Structure prediction request, 67 residues.
Amino acid sequence: MTKSKTFRLESLLIGASLTFIMSAFAANAQNLRFWTMETQPDRLAKQQQMAADFEASTGIAVEVKFL
Prediction:
């Protein structure tokens, strides 16, 4: 296997592992904090709406914070 393919495979495995860990954590979480660098009002409003929609469908509160 070439070095490039090995790197991609390792990256995929790490990504899958992190996704699994984050999903397991989120399943037990009652609140999430989402950090954003967004300053444009329209984009910020969209992120806040997505957080509200997520909370409505899952019951998990999402706090949108600014960096």
Remarks:
- The two ends are 41 Å apart (CA to CA).
- Residues 3-66 form one domain.
